[in-house]
Write a structure and sequence with these properties.
With 432 residues, this protein is of the alpha/beta class. It has 17 helices and 14 strands. The longest helix has 19 residues.
């Protein structure tokens, strides 16, 4: 069903996977730049104008914020089983991220105290897509680390439906479970700009997180520097390393769980077993025919689905490190033995009973992950993304005098006499 390659073809595979991003579109970038600039300068006027133009909804300062009644209606529309599952997922996500918290620390040494102060961001904005791309699980993954970090206020924006409500009401229940403070019915690049610069109705935030379409991704890139952002995400990907102990039906199902996301999603199997490669390929065809999103799956598999057969597992690991996948599954007999060879991956799923969807929804680690090879230098969304760190230095007179000549020497060598003088003047050595 999909091509079966040898490890020597890995470089071509990497190039194909890396080229999937649709962000490099000059026309869209120019349109986004215009939208961002207008919202920056005109505030609500531009925000509501674009909402009327793109979403066909007339909003005002009085109607843009989601009401408690709308949130209650979202709860009423949800099943008790779904609410129970979401609350349990929220508990697990919170517990995992609690372990990431850092505390302010000070190291008192003779004559000097050095440390680091941890301060939560004051206000964070979370973007939640509408329509078929609305995932309540992503609300939990974006909001709960911010709550754990101690962010004072969390703002959520999500596109309106044509009836003037939220296009995907279950996102409201998820937001309430996670502890969002305010929700606004705006979407697209204009919503990102509103969060970045503030309008009469929507307060300015310190950082924007959350997924979105190409317009949202470009808008986040455009406003970066005025505010922080989590990352500019590309299409999803999974790479499965599997040996002869893997069940081909399980491996195929895991590959398809990513392929159904998007025509640009990449599902890749790297294995040291020819027999497994052939069996997984057959399973992909069988299972695809049973799935409702088979059109999207076929587009994804045709363009980016690949099986690579290698001589051994270390070579499989080397190919995975080259791809630096968003999701990496180690479907092998001894996943802990293979783990030291893995350098680049957003999330690593170990063993035959740790499928990627477990991480998407319920395990606890964050599912907001680096894509398109950026796992080489980016990490999953985490508590550190919602705090800032300040260095602390407290020196005594005696300690400063002890090191003053060396500080003065280093400053003057760089031609910064005023820097040198800020130390020298304290000891009667003013530089003139």
């Amino acid at each position: 069903m999909i091509p079966i390659l040898k490890s020597s073809d890995a470089a071509a595979l990497k190039a194909r996977v890396m080229e999937r991003s649709q962000l490099q579109n000059d026309d869209i970038s120019a349109r986004v730049k215009e939208i961002v600039q207008r919202v920056c300068t005109e505030g609500d006027t531009a925000l509501f104008d674009y909402t009327a133009r793109f979403d066909k909804v007339q909003l005002t300062a009085e109607t843009v914020q989601v009401t408690r009644e709308e949130i209650d209606a979202a709860y009423a529309a949800a099943t008790p089983e779904w609410l129970e599952a979401m609350r349990e997922a929220a508990r697990r996500i919170t517990a995992f991220h609690e372990k990431q918290k850092q505390n302010t620390w000070i190291d008192f040494q003779p004559g000097i105290a050095l440390g680091q102060k941890i301060t939560p961001l004051s206000r964070v904005g979370v973007y939640v897509p509408g329509g078929t791309a609305a995932y309540p699980s992503s609300v939990l993954m974006n909001v709960l680390p911010a709550k754990v970090a101690g962010v004072k206020e969390i703002i959520m924006v999500t596109p309106p439906g044509k009836d003037g409500g939220v296009s995907y009401p279950l996102a409201l229940a998820a937001a309430d479970i996670a502890g969002v403070d305010k929700i606004y019915k705006v979407g697209g690049a204009q919503a990102v700009a509103a969060l970045a610069f503030g309008t009469e109705s929507i307060p300015r935030v310190d950082k924007i997180t959350g997924p979105g379409n190409i317009y949202v991704a470009n808008a986040k890139r455009e406003v970066f520097g005025h505010v922080g952002i989590d990352m500019v995400a590309g299409p999803s990907e999974v790479l499965v390393i599997a040996d002869g102990t893997a069940n081909p039906a399980y491996v195929a199902a895991d590959l398809l769980s990513q392929a159904e996301h998007d025509p640009f999603a990449a599902a890749i199997l790297v294995t040291n077993s020819d027999a497994l490669a052939t069996a997984v390929d057959a399973e992909l065809a069988r299972q695809t025919a049973l799935l409702p999103r088979q059109e999207v799956i076929l587009q994804s598999l045709t363009a980016y689905g690949t099986i690579v057969v290698c001589d051994d597992l270390p070579t499989c690991a080397d190919i995975a490190n080259q791809i630096a996948p968003e999701h990496l599954e180690l479907c092998v007999a001894e996943p802990y033995a293979l783990l030291p060879l893995i350098d680049n991956a957003g999330a690593i799923f170990m063993g035959h009973w740790s499928p990627e969807p477990l991480g998407d929804y319920f395990a606890g680690p964050n599912h907001v992950l680096p894509t398109s090879g950026t796992a080489r230098f980016f990490s999953p969304l985490n508590v550190d993304d919602f705090v800032k760190k300040s260095s602390l230095i407290c020196c005594t007179r005696e300690e400063l005098e002890k090191v003053s000549d060396q500080v003065i020497l280093l400053a003057r060598q760089e031609g910064l006499d005023a820097h040198a003088n800020a130390v020298a003047i304290r000891f009667g050595k003013e530089i003139t």
